Amino acid sequence: MVAELGCATGPNTLKLMPELVKSTYQTFRARNRKDIPQIQIFLNDLYFNDFSTVSRSLPKFMKDLEKERDGDVGPLFISMTPGSYRKRIFPDNFLHFVHCANSAHWLSKVPNALSNESGESLTKGCLYLTDSSSPELVRAYHEQFAKDFISFLECRAQEIVRGGRMVVNMMGLVDEKKVSEFNIPFYPATMVEVNRLVSNEGSFSLHKHETFTLDWDMPEGDKMDVLKRARFVAQTDRVASEYMISTQFGEVFTDEFYRRFADRIRRHLAAGYQLQTFHQVISLIKK
Ligand SMILES: C[S@@+](CC[C@H](N)C(=O)[O-])C[C@H]1O[C@@H](n2cnc3c(N)ncnc32)[C@H](O)[C@@H]1O
Hints:
Layout: E1 2-5, H1 17-30, E2 39-45, H2 51-68, E3 76-82, E4 95-101, H3 135-159, E5 160-173, E6 189-190, H4 191-201, E7 204-215, H5 226-249, H6 251-270, E8 276-286
């Protein structure tokens, strides 16, 4: 039983699955198991995700997989499980492997404590944390992330069988001094914070913790027009954040928001800066 949490509708929805099928078969064969693995994959995202498009992509996915594996594919079942992974979405002791990519850094809501004791706004007109954000604001984001991440771990701890694995890939920070800009309900935690939360929650042991950076740009972006690159980057962000931005500010403002965002990126790229994202991947084993 496998779950892909926050699967979205796009190129990454089923990206891991061929690799997962391959390694499951390899493991069975390495252990001399004669039975054919039966794999059930649950694709999860929020209720408004475009599951119809995901469903329509499945015949091609299965066909490509069979071709890639030269017909060596046993029973493979794929289901959709709409709902928030911040709550329970599967029965007790049900899942053997969980994957969650590029989602866990999104917060369930903007932190409450966005004003100080005298009622002054801590954001000072910014829509995100910046290097100059007050320690109170950074703390409010950190506390919201801690709450969300712990409840995510608690739910999965009930759903994953003992010895089951979970791999979470999320955006993060190299260290706390490098707090760069990010949008409202988003918190790039440091590795130290994530380790501490996993250990405090207590249900999982940390198997591996790795980091990598990705260029946030079009392929061969340096040869492309800056405006085109900026629009591409803004669009990739829009796929992930539009729901939250339109909920926060209203749909009327959303197009303008992303237009202005693209313009900021254009100026950034035109000044010769590169856009990169820092990621961390944790591999956990249910105790
Ligand atoms: C940036 S996209 C990542 C999509 C895909 N996993 C990838 O790696 O490209 C984040 C996805 O997480 C989903 N998501 C955010 N909060 C969620 C929640 N509480 N429960 C389930 N899905 C959630 C969003 O709807 C969105 O599709």
